[in-house]
Prior knowledge:
The chain has 8 helices and 6 strands, in the order E-H-H-E-H-E-H-H-H-E-H-E-E-H.
Amino acid sequence: MSQYKDYQLVIVRHGESEWNKLNLFTGWRDCRLSEKGVEEAKAAGVTLKNDGFEFDVAHCSLLTRANQTLYLALDQMDAVWTPVKKHWRLNERHYGALQGANKIEAVEKFGEAQVKIWRRSYDVPPPPVETSSADFPAHDRRYKDVDPAELPKSESLKDVLARVMPYWENAVLPDLKAGKRVIIAAHGNSLRALLKYLEGVSDNDIIDVDLPTGIPKAYRLTADWKAADAKFLGDPAELERRINAVKAQTKKA
Length: 253
Ligand SMILES: O=C(O)[C@@H](CO)OP(=O)(O)O
């Protein structure tokens, strides 16, 4: 019997993307997984299978890298048939005018402290893009049914939490309440927002939380749907290595 039989929810950040590899701020730009990211996603599926996980439904963002990760992981579990619900509210945080910028060059230009505030503070958003910019999501047909007033020009983690929560309440929670076992494939910062809520992390402590690429985190939930227990799956040394790789993105080699 799996030691995780009471764990109803798994979250997984996508595997390494082409832009993670190039060390660029990505946000809502739609890059694909790198070759390494593909392997990370497959390995996540193998881990989930070996740990005895099965899912009744999946939730995913509208960005390619999360969809690839979900599909590749489910494929390893012989479960690509799993119903998938997709929504922009699970997208990565919109990185505003930083989207497409190199993270080291941003540190050289604005200083490490400012870049850390933009990357990890709870409530300071990066500078916004104009609505005329190609980075404003209303220009992308996948968001054509979304009221442009709801679409971001830049987001702090607090802004991300505010737009993730309605999706949690209206789409994910009903599945959990129906007894379904749920996987959410999404992004470093949309999942940090959800983790902050589920685990009750303070505004201050969330600054030091980084999510690794492609390593599933499993939750056993309380009666009021918060985290009773949370565990990253797989090899602890690999987990540490991947978290450190995210932290190192703004450090000169
Ligand atoms: O660029 C981004 O969109 C995110 C996730 O890859 O980066 P960071 O970890 O710097 O918030």
